[in-house]
Amino acid sequence: MSAQPSEKASAVSPLLAFEIEVVALTRLSPHFLRVTFGGDDLAGLDDGGHLGPRDLRVKLMFASPGFALPDFGDLSGGWYSQWLAMDPARRGSMRTYTIRAARVRGDRPPQIDIDFVLHPGQGPVGPAARWAADVRVGDRLVLLGPNAAAATGGAPPGVEWAPPTGSGVQVLMVGDETAVPAIGSVLATLPADVRGQALIEVPDAADVLDLATAARVDVRWCVRGERPRGQALSELVRTGLASADVGVSPAAAEALPEVDVDEEILWETGEPVADGWYAWLAGEAAMVRDLRRYLVGECGIDRRRVAFMGYWREGRAESS
């Protein structure tokens, strides 16, 4: 198939299809694999400019066994519905990932890094897990991502990170292992005058990574081990809030509507604020729902200052 868009499509569509090839593999830990992709197409990717990709989400397309992917040359309005209408056995599968780092400008061949969460000992269950378990240098995929030619100067489509733009910004980032690539990407480009905490839960102590940042953000890790997902992280969040100036006010607690994370998408990105505190929470949906209830429904933290994103639901495959 050809993922090269037509001239007309690239002029009107905020998304493009990029043919990419695995050029390097780096095993970061038992549960993290960094896949470096290259490809001339990536020169047309909107990488977020000087602010970096932040938590930029893109789609990776995995072909169905025995079939080629459909043509993604035109990603103008209605393409997703048309793709869904295809025979599920032939159209391939779509999975969402965060760009950990992008090097698509300058004289060097364009490249991006995407960190995959592996599941050793559990066996690959979905198309992305199967692909990551057997990936080799030279393997090819198609990525759907923001079109640099359609950039407006703001954040690319797929970026939710939107902290205050004023002075004295304090941030709280919270997530499980699926949020680590986004947290790492955000930390890499935060300015030095931003302070706060990044609180992260991972399956194993060997999964604690070095997330570099110039900001005054304290990165704290907790290990899940055999405990239920989110239990260790909830304890870490409660400890972290106790030591931070985040405007906790139980009297201002807001009653939140119940969200059935088995049927509904938990995705709330707050509202732009001029300065002060900002929180970003992402990961397994039930875990994020419970943390949302604690922060807003118990601590009384202003809901406008908090982004909650249920990236996935334990026990359920991503819809494709």
From TrEMBL:
For the FAD-binding FR-type domain, which residue ranges apply?
15-153
Q: Which SUPFAM superfamilies match?
A: Riboflavin synthase domain-like (SSF63380)
Task: Give the matching Pfam families.
Answer: FAD_binding_9 (PF08021), SIP (PF04954)
Looking up CDD domains in the UniProt record yields:
siderophore_interacting (cd06193)
This chain belongs to the protein called Siderophore-interacting protein
State the organism's lineage: Bacteria, Bacillati, Actinomycetota, Actinomycetes, Kineosporiales
